[in-house]
Amino acid sequence: MEALSLLRLYCSASCINSDELTRIIGAYGNEAVIRAGLYPNPVLTALGGSQGGCGGNSQGGWVYPSSMMTGYQNLAGYYGAYLYNDRLDILNAKLIVLDGNNPSWSVLGYPNKVLLDAKRRGAKIVGINPFYNSGLGAIADEWIPIRPATDAALFIGCAYHMIENDLQDQAFLDTYTVGFDADHVPEGADPKDNFKDYVLGTYDGVPKTPEWASEICGVEPEVIRSLATDMATIKPAAIFSCSAVTRGFRGEQAAQAFFTVGWMTGNVGKSGAMVSDMSGQMVCSGGSALVAVGGEGRSEYATTDPVANTFALSAAVVPTDGLFGVTSQQKWHAVYDGSYHNGKWGQREIDIRCIWDIGRGNKLNSEPDTLLGIKAFRKVEFVVSCDCFLNMTAQYADIVLPMVMQWEHPANFSHTSNRETLTYCSHVIDPLFEARSDYEINRALAERLGFDPDELEITEEEIFANQIQGATVIKEGGFTKKVGSGAVGPGGATTEDMVDPDFEKLLTITAEDWAELGFPDREPQEGRIPLRQFLKDGIYQVPRTEGDNCGYIALEAFVEDPVANPLNTESGKLEIYCRQLAEIVDIYGSYSISPIPKYEPPQEGYEATFSDFENRVKGPYPLQLESPHSLGHHSSQLDNCRWMQEAHANVACVNPLDAQERGLSQHDPVKIYNGRGALVRAIKITPRVVPGVVLVADGG
After folding, report:
1. Closest CA to 17 of 398, 303, 334
2. Is the peptide bond before 236 cis (omega within 30 degrees of 0)?
3. b/e map of 285-322 (b: 16 or more CB within 10 Å)?
4. Under the phi-then-psi rule, with left for phi > 0, alpha for psi from -120 to 50, and beta for the rest, what region is 167?
């Protein structure tokens, strides 16, 4: 079937979509349809469900260690980030370590300002990264160049130095963690399976010295010792990593090692001290939201799927059977090859006949293995996509539905960048031509299929009404209790009816306001500020001062009394030995990991650049590829903007040593290739990239 024009009438497209969808489900079953994104689609749910993709290209291997080892799923969003402290408390840190972070390019909000303010107060800032990026250039006192995907080895080498010199906070480890040494493994675990003996090489005969780590990660042994000493002795310290270091084979091991070494320093539950990721939206703004919108109020059709409820994976839920979705790394293999590795249930056959990509972005560009993805698109019987542009994914679809741009949407809220700010996005222009939102597309398809659109999918206007009606804000006196530090979980602004006595309604909404919004039957309400004022200002900021009652120190209550305030982990403590983590990776993954932090070479990491690693003989692909976010585009968005292309060209950055070895000069065109595919870029020769690495930004 040839791709239809972007401007083809929606009624014709809806007919084709609904007819093809029902035909394929009728002939092959619901598992024959795979949705491109993580979240359920209400139309597919109403038809009996669909196969889903799962796993984290964005969060990488960070989600499960964070959830299982600490009891908190630290995905920063509207409702808070709970493993790092409030922005005003970060200013009290004397040492700040940034492992893999690029605060200028990769996150929303004001992390650079917070970090700069801490630096001005005397904090030492150390950046660990294969790329000396602009964020580090602006704030770092020291750059530690490291090879990609070797962070676990670096931190394990740091652990050896701490143990060798008795620098670890043993009292903290004994009281608040399980698994550090043989005397503190969980009940039922083999005492030999502890982190300290692994580091010392007690049973495998391989001491994980800084010299051992240096051979893998490329950081000089004395630099590893210096980093370890700083982390163990400069107090308080804010030790940060990010999801980027875990985006790869056995990426969870980097998070395991990071958390463990951070906890060895005892920098937990105190002012200026934290061990956390610095990813997501609310970076450098830890704690529950001080102001937040109400819930969207979408139907269960938009939040669950009877075939593969992959949304549950974001909460690290352990499934009871083998049907939980195809991991993103295997998605195109599953479609093209007809089978995929289904975790502990082994290889599973699957017959995908339809790819459904409504409102889920440019998947052929952003998912792994693009060329195989193209083959998968060509193999199936039907592909439907939607976008503002004829991007790569749209080019290989049978039906392309034109999507609205951000300023064509009705009034809505922007992604928040901190816990104390709410930003309103006004409606700018009506949709042009035939463009519609994914909500409208779902409603149109629901009607075509004989469902009640109001039952399956509410309108964007209804979502906005629900959000403003339920918006809450911290009362002027701030918190009256400590929150977010024990098993009960974080307090803060809520998406349901207000239940926290420390919060009140944000907005006063009159009967006249509701009538103007098109909801005359809704009840007026009293709040902190008038709705009209908020819509005029476009923003609400909770007033903050140092020492106010709106601050947050991660795990403070747990550290003060771990018995009264246990964590939501299997042991109630921070878990260096984490049985549940090993179990969930074994269930979901195409590999297994140990319940304690270890370094095992990734499938295509530094060691794979050699045909004979022991004798250091390079193989056919001697370089590693690093793909950070770009300052010129977000994934593939805005990459078609000429102004951005001029300001931030898509180039391949290489170290002068690698360029010299290959006889390359500045701006030479080069072919970059491996067994999966190839691309052509002009090169930028710079010492800001470590030797042995080619840096090409994602999405371009």
Report:
1. 398
2. yes
3. bbbbbbbbbbbbebeebbeebebbbbbbbbebeebeee
4. alpha
What DSSP assignment string belongs to 28-65? H-GGGEEESSSS--HHHHHTT--B-EES-SSSTT-HHH
Contact 87, 264 (CB under 8 A): no
Residue whose entry in the numeric block shows the structure tokens 């290959």:
662
Residue type, 53: G
Other beta carbons within 10 angstroms of residue 545's beta carbon come to 8
CB neighbour class for 121 (10 Å; exposed up to 12, middle 13-18, buried from 19): exposed
Query: Do 436 and 388 form a contact (C-beta atoms < 8 A)?
Result: no
Q: Return d(Cα 523, Cα 102) in angstroms, integer.
A: 46
Q: Which residues contact 214 (CB under 8 A, 6 or more apart)?
A: 157, 220, 221, 224
Over residues 605-653, the pLDDT tens digits come to: 999 999 999 999 999 999 999 988 888 777 777 788 888 888 888 999 9
Query: Which tokens go with 310?
Result: 């992959």
Using alpha carbons, select from 221, 211, 191 the residue that is nearest to residue 203: 191
Bridge partners of 124, per DSSP, are: 95
Task: Please list the residues that pair with 673 across neighbouring strands.
Answer: 678
Residue spans of alpha helices (H) in 203-301: 210-217, 221-233, 252-264
CB atoms within 10 A of CB 208: 24
420: closest CA among 86, 93, 107? 86
480-537 tens-digit pLDDT = 876 544 333 333 443 333 347 789 999 999 999 999 999 999 999 999 999 999 999 9
Is 388 in contact with 63 (CB distance < 8 Å)?
Answer: no
Which residue(s) pair with 143 in the sheet?
127
- State the CB neighbour count (10 A cutoff) for residue 325: 28
With a threshold of 0.90, does the pTM exceed it? yes
Residues 6+ apart with CB under 8 A from 371: 676, 677
DSSP 145-204: E--TT-HHHHHHHHHHHHHHTT-S-HHHHHHHEESSSGGGPPTTS-TT--HHHHHHTTTT
User: H/E/C letters for each residue in 405-464?
Assistant: CHHHCCCEECCCCCCCEEEEECCCCCCCCCCECHHHHHHHHHHHCCCCHHHHCCCHHHHH
Please give the Cα distance from 630 to 255 (Å, whole number).
Answer: 24
- The residues with which 383 forms a beta bridge, in sequence order, are 355
